[in-house]
Request: fold
Amino acid sequence: MKRPDMLARIVVANQAEARFYDAAGPRSRLRDAGRLANPEARLHDRDLKSDRPGRVFTSAASGSGRRGAVAHHATGGERQPRKQVAIVFARKIATELIAAKRNGQFDRLVLIVAPSFLGVLRKALPKSLQSDVAAAVAKDLQDPCADEVRAHIPQQAFQTLR
Reply:
């Protein structure tokens, strides 16, 4: 089977799932190219994390002249479990795309990604793939049909890359 001149890999993703489609043009039939699931994205923070952050004691002299541990507080609560799960999933998507690009399965990328996940995914893509991104659409498509995906692909996605 002869490969079309320009093949676009369309990535439709949010933090819980990524679907991949291939298209040769704006009106061409979308061909299913795979799917990745991230079941952890649907869990609550309390289910992702085993316990509270560690505690430390601050030693300081009090006004009454007492010494010792007079205060204690939590440490390291800045790492949000849901954000970490999203970063790991974005890297998994990037790894999948790197392998597909290496195998010559596409020439350009179209990202249709939930707004809250688009920046995370962009950061996970290596520079070699970032230059292949022809269009990025911040849209969360839940269980989309082919026509719905096609409706969100910008026309410039199939124009010649510079």
User: Anything to note?
Assistant: The chain has one domain: 8-44+80-158. The longest helix spans residues 81-102.
